[in-house]
Amino acid sequence: MKKKSPYQKFVKSEPYFHLVLWCLVLFYPYIKYMKREGGYMMSFSHELNSLIFKMTISYFLYLVFFPKKNKLKHLPILVLVFSLNVLLYEYLDHFFHPEMTNYWTQTVSNLLTYIGFGIVFFTIYSIKKSLKNQQELNVLLEEKQKTEMNLLKARVNPHFLFNTLNTIYLNALKKDDKTPDLILKLSDSFRYILHEGQKEKVAIQQELFHIQNYIHLQEERLSDKVQVNFIKNIENQTQEIAPILLIGFIENAFKYVSILKGNNHKIDIEILLKNKELRFFCKNPFNKNALDRISVDWIESGIGIRNTEKRLQLLYPQNHTLEINEETDFFEIKLTLKL
User: Are residues 181 and 217 in the same domain?
Assistant: First the structure.
C-alpha cells in the first residue's frame, strides 16, 4: 500500500480542523462566562448569526480570493465583500441588542475580527498550497527518475550481443553440443532485461541467475583468455533488489579484460547477502595503456559504471557506499548496499 503524502494527510484531516475551529468560535463565549453568575448574556441565535458572517468572509477569502493569481486586480471585489459583510452583520446584529448605540466602534471591532480570521485562513491556505506544490514536485521528480531509470536500463551492450552471436555462430559451424545452451542463455538474458528489468524490484535469485548466464556467455566467448572466480553467499534468496544493478560492474570487468594480451586473466566476483546488507566485490586486471584499443562507442556502450552509479544514487541514495580503486595493474569495485 502506497504511503500517503503530507498533502494527502492534510486534505484528509482538514475538515476536522475546520469543524473544531468553528465549534471553538461558537462556544468560546459560553465557556468563558461559564463560572460567572448568569453565564453568557447573549442568546445562541446571536452567536450563530455572528458565526455565519465570520464563516462567509473566511471562506470567501479561502476559496475565492487567495487562489487568484492576480490578487490586486480582484482587490476591489474583496473590499466590496468585506464592506457588505460588515454592514449586513451590523444591521442584523442590531435586532439582538437594539439598545447599543456605539455603531462605528462595533463596526471597526468586527472588521478587525474578520481580518484576524483572514490571517488564520491565509495561513491554512499557504500551508496547503506549499504541501500541494511539494507533492507535485515529488511526482515530477519521480516521473523524471523513472524515465531516467528506464533509459539507463535500456542500454544493452551491442558489442556483447554481436560478439556472443558470433561465438554461437562459430560453435554452430563446428556443430558444438554447447550451441543450444548458449542460445538459451542469451535468450534468457535478453528476456530478463526486457521483462524483469522493467520492474522496480526482483528477487535476488533472479538477478544472480542473470549474472551467472552473462558470465557463462563471456567465458565461452573469451575462452582461455579469462578465468572467473565467482563466489556467492546469499542468506535470503527472495530478498528483493533493483534489477540489472550489478551487471554494469561485471560487464566493465569483462570489457577491459577482453583487450588484454595473453590468457588466464583472473576476474574475482563476490556477492554476499546477510541481514539485508549486500556486499559486492569485483576485481579484474587492468592496463590503462590498452584503453586505446577500445573504440569510443564500445567504451560508452552497455550499462557501464557511470550509469550504475547514477542508478545507485536514484534508488539507494542514503543506503549504499561505493568504492572504486584504479591501480596500475588492477581495477577494483567494492559496494555495500542496504536493501
Answer: yes
Q: What is the pLDDT of residues 99-120, one digit of tens each?
A: 666 667 777 887 888 888 989 9
Contact 127, 10 (CB under 8 A): yes
Distance of alpha carbon 18 from alpha carbon 35, whole angstroms: 27
**Residues 76, 202: one domain?**
no
List Cβ<8 Å contacts ≥24 apart for 85-89: 85/53, 85/56, 85/57, 85/114, 86/110, 86/111, 86/114, 88/53, 89/49, 89/50, 89/53
* This prediction's pTM: 0.56
Q: What are phi and psi of 95, to 5 degrees?
A: -70, -25
Select from 285, 247, 286, 274 the least CA-distant residue to 336: 274
At 282, which helix (H) or strand (E)? Answer: strand 277-285
Give the span between the Cα atoms of 56 and 135, in whole angstroms: 29
Q: Is the pLDDT assigned to residue 58 strictly greater than 70?
A: yes
Long-range contacts of 138-146 (CB under 8 A, 24+ apart): 138/5, 145/314
Cβ–Cβ under 8 Å, residues 194 and 170: no
The CA distance from 3 to 142, in Å, is 14
Beta bridge partners of 12: none
User: Which three cell numbers mark 109?
Assistant: 471591532
Tell whether 49 is covered by a domain: yes
Annotate 128-155 with DSSP letters as a single string.
Answer: HHHHHHHHHHHHHHHHHHHHHHHHHHT-
- How many Å apart are CA 104 and CA 153, to the nearest integer? 72
Report the number of distinct structural domains present in the chain. 2
Average pLDDT score over residue span 172-200: 78
